[in-house]
Amino acid sequence: MINAFSNYTINGFYDESLERADKPREASVQLFQHYEGVSLKEFEELQRNANATIAQMGISFTVYSDKGNIDRLWPFDVFPRTIPASEWKEVSKGLVQRLKALNMFIEDVYNDQDIFKAGIIPEEVILSSKDYRPECKGMKLKHGSWACICGSDLVRGADGTVYVLEDNLRVPSGVSYMLENRAVMKQVMPEVFHDINIMPIDDYPANLLSMLSSLSPNEVESPEVVVLTPGIFNSAYYEHAYLAHEMGAELVEGSDLVVLDDDCVYMRNIDGLKKVDVIYRRIDDAFLDPEVFREDSTLGVKGLIRAWRAGNVAIANAPGCGVADDKVVYSYVPDMIRFYLKEEPLVENVPSYLCSVDEDREYVLQHLNELVVKPANESGGYGLLIGPKASEEEIEQFRELIIENPRNYIAQPTLSLSTVPTLCEEGIEGRHVDLRPFILQGKKSYVTAGGLTRVALRKGSLVVNSSQGGGSKDTWIVES
């Protein structure tokens, strides 16, 4: 075993790397063999090298605070997470299945609403969602692709079962960090990529461009694809610029685009105006078009929705797809799969309680100290109640919030999230992780080989978001 693991303990959680302290799991055997005898000091040196590489590459993220926006270097842990390729193959099938059903659901919501008529989902649950957009009624999209890019968060429970924790369908972020994590690992530990059969991930930008091009409503050989960003002050601007560069697409802001009387979108450049076929937008619905949504928006493009509805431009992800990116709607996804695909879900949801349902709400209010309570539309780990770690005051505050607006809350059991060895001040210890793979759906479907593993760097914490003290790891899908 690795010397640095001499005091490693699993503490009753499912550990992604080790079956027990002296026995690596199948996908980690070669990794542990490779570093046989490596000391804690040598791992600390690897971590310093990784941090220096991140600084040199300028990999950063932005944290919003009362004192202004703060740019920080990307938090990264040098010990990778390993998953066997045989398991990932099955998980990938489940993710493709899930996104297909979600896209069918979104199109149904804005058209025939068969799922309401069948009594599968109460109509008021959807029509009361803040992300339901009446402006999208009657739209049917090429390949049925509304949510073309999805980041579904996966967790593994104590028994090793993989669950979908939530789906991110509006403007999912993080894929650039998945790619940069791999680049850092190849710089710091190049030899392991010769010795271990790790599935590559560097084909993502090419697959993203191919998927976006397949959405073009215009029959052109090379569609003009642009990435629409809110600008440099957005927390994900690094990713916007990175993906545009890797795809060879133009990075634009709203002021760079204009919709003319022909209801087509054009990009301003030094040669004049150039027609745009596909917009990969990284702006929320509300700011996309001041003609339709927020009148005060300076981030979007006036007339954009008009051009989209006229079928002259594709927008990814499509306006209105956030209606399925709702933690209440999440609980109905298994039923969507059965209704639209006539199949059983291949990857299950975490069991959930809907506070809008009387019986569920009564149970939640009686067990707040045992559950995780989530607002329907928050992201980034904000607005949560983690019952076992909450004060009496926090519990009572959430009790009042639930009673006041039950539609806005769901609750789930507090999962014993799996752990991965992580370099800490105390040595190498297990820290809780989740995983965000990225799924594309256009003419074809695609799933990343792994995804962005996020790790809760604080001892005992379940919060993995980088904005709240979390970090990340490279994710290895290992072929035997």
Briefly say what this structure is.
It is built from 14 helices and 25 strands. It has 480 residues and is α+β, with helices and mostly antiparallel strands.
| Tally of strands | 25
Rg, Cα atoms, Å: 23 Å
Helix content: 25-40%
How does the major sheet shape up?
Answer: 5 strands, mixed
Strand residues, percent: 15-25%
Strand numbers in spatial order across the main sheet: 5-25-24-21-20
Tag the structure with descriptive keywords.
single chain; 480 residues; alpha+beta; five-stranded mixed sheet; 14 helices; 25 strands
Structural description of this entry:
By secondary structure, the chain is α+β, with helices and mostly antiparallel strands. The protein is 29% helix and 24% strand. The protein is built from 14 helices and 25 strands. Strands 5-25-24-21-20 form a five-stranded mixed β-sheet. A five-stranded mixed β-sheet has the order 15-7-6-22-23. The chain has a four-stranded parallel β-sheet with strand order 9-8-13-14. Helix 2 (40-57) crosses helix 6 and helix 3 (85-109) packs across helix 12. The protein is globular and about 70 Å long. The chain starts with 17 loop residues before the first strand and ends with a strand. The relative contact order is 0.19. The model has no long low-confidence stretch (mean pLDDT 92).
